[in-house]
């Protein structure tokens, strides 16, 4: 018994699936990689898959290459992952997305002899995975605490909603103080010249894309409205690179360490 394999069709099918999986991981990790970079990663993964299939290898070796080498090349090429922690996260997300995509494909197994059904199932799985991630992210945010906060500077007073995020452990590397993060548009409402505000400076921090710097300054005081108002003098505030919440559910991310001082 032997099988005929049309390598061009096999390449295109794998290219599409690999690219979709990388798109999912890119969206979930908020990496911001371009479509051309994603497609390059998909092409690299598909090419290696075809190569491994064409070359006679022991089953165990072939499986090892499929599971580790091909996926690693896809992640590094398509997402430009450099740090080990990010690589592990992307690698696991890739397999989680592949598992969910395989589940959707299984539903249409009886009709897979039609190419149009195959492509439609792949597109449906992509949409479903992103919708599922959005729902899970929303549920997680709802479990977090949204508080009312008022920021005071010498020139302005700004009431806003803030997310108390236990995952925000950002600190000023020079003073060790906790940093609270606001959106760029919120900073513009507080001052038209942030660089002139008290304590303005740049601090390094780790982000998804690697190392970056953040503008920080001090507000005169900050009031967190709880059952009993909590006042923080000379609170350190950092300016994020983009809006913190697309639906404006919150405009600030509080560092829980401000309550321990």
Automatic annotation (TrEMBL):
The keyword Membrane is assigned to this record: yes
Keywords noted in UniProt: Membrane, Transmembrane, Transmembrane helix
A Gene Ontology BP annotation from the UniProt entry: proteolysis
GO molecular function, one term: aspartic-type endopeptidase activity
Transmembrane segments: 6-26, 38-57, 63-81, 88-108, 114-133
Domain of life: Bacteria
Pfam families the record matches: Peptidase_U4
Name of the protein in its database record: Sigma-E processing peptidase SpoIIGA
